[in-house]
Specification:
Length: about 375
């Protein structure tokens, strides 16, 4: 089932405490737009980044909404391209929503009109932007993987749709992964982002696009996260644990940058849209169920999954369920107010989705726990 060992990821990455201090040298003489999360001002991070950027800073955006929606993005995007076209670089400092917003600001059609950008996004087809900026991504959470991929999720809640921006032009130029920026994260964000990274790693394995190189990154990421995340939840101020989780998230990002995600993520989008479940929980609570369906579908995938989980594969679903329960994450659809009938319909819908079709499992094999 595995593809030939072909791999591509053009992102220049630096993973080290203090990596953010390299920002001025990477920018050179470029003018930039800074996209940063709301509470960065109160934490003193906004002032620190602004000082690093100095006269290179053309514009600051700090009102990013979680899970960016097209209705919220319209003004930000239009203002960026109409009033601040001199900025040829976007610097994103934050989690997945910040980096996804920044990716939307990277590209524009010839008209520089948001409606034309949105039409291209809604079409689901590749398009060639006329205006392109480069992106320097500086994640402040360990899990999104957005700093290592060209994809951004933009929500169109009015139309009940999840939109995906993914172009050759939306790969980040550079990722500065600085674990010091992750100190002080809330337990909820630490947990949700860590589980997102775990999902990325496993989704890259039970995937029709997997290959030996993506397997190497995915296996290492899964093993690191299973070991590190519980310890980090107990010792959130431990910089070494933060650095280990940050590196594991980068490995997971490298893996799924080539495979894309699969069934668990396809299910998660509806769980977020319909039930408001945070992404990291929405894409991870089904992992034991999805593993149950993946087992036995491809001997090569089975071997890699067992290696990643560190247990015989027949014990994998039970091990994953116990891992999530110990972290306080419930693992049944009913726990989130979803009936069996709705769950089955949601699963069938997810199987037909673009990400669902990446999954190695056989349609019809039970997903709900026996």
């Amino acid at each position: 089932m595995a593809c030939p060992a072909s791999f591509f990821n053009p992102v220049r990455s630096l993973c080290a405490p203090g990596a953010i201090d390299r920002l001025p040298g990477i920018l050179g003489d470029s003018r930039c737009t800074l996209v940063i999360f709301r509470s960065a001002r109160a934490r003193g991070l906004l002032a620190r980044v602004q000082a690093l950027l100095g006269p290179r800073l053309a514009h600051t955006i700090e009102d990013v909404q979680p899970n960016p929606d097209v209705a919220q993005l319209r003004h930000t995007w239009t203002d960026s391209w109409h009033k601040h076209r001199d900025a040829d670089t976007v610097v994103a400092v934050g989690g997945g929503s910040v980096i996804d917003t920044a990716k939307a600001l990277m590209v524009a059609p010839q008209s520089l009109e948001f409606d034309d950008f949105l039409a291209a996004l809604r079409s689901g087809h590749p398009w060639k932007p006329s205006h392109v900026r480069r992106l320097i991504a500086i994640p402040t959470t360990a899990g999104t993987g957005s700093e290592m991929t060209p994809w951004a999720t933009i929500w169109d809640r009015a139309a009940h749709r999840k939109l995906s921006l993914h172009l050759p032009e939306t790969w980040p130029h550079t990722a500065l992964v600085d674990a010091e920026l992750m100190l002080g994260l809330s337990p909820a964000v630490t947990l949700q982002s860590g589980l997102d990274a775990l999902s990325h790693s496993l989704e890259a394995i039970w995937n029709v696009n997997a290959n030996p190189i993506s397997d190497t990154f995915a296996t290492a990421a899964a093993r690191d996260i299973l070991k590190t995340l519980p310890a980090l939840m107990q010792q959130p101020d431990d910089l070494a644990l933060r650095a280990a989780m940050a590196l594991a998230a980068v490995k997971a990002g490298m893996a799924f940058s080539n495979t894309r995600t699969a069934l668990a993520h396809s299910i998660s989008y509806e769980m977020t849209l319909r039930h408001g479940l945070p992404h990291g929980i929405a894409c991870s609570f089904t992992l034991p169920m999805v593993l149950h369906r993946a087992m036995g579908c491809d001997p090569g995938r089975d071997r890699v999954l067992a290696d990643a989980l560190g247990v015989p594969l027949e014990q994998g679903s039970r091990m994953l369920r116990g891992f999530l329960h110990r972290l306080g994450v419930k693992t049944e659809f009913a726990d989130y107010g979803v009936s069996d009938a709705e769950a089955q319909a949601l699963i069938r819908h997810a199987e037909d989705g673009v990400r669902g079709q990446n999954f190695v499992g056989r349609p019809g094999k039970p997903l709900l726990p026996l």
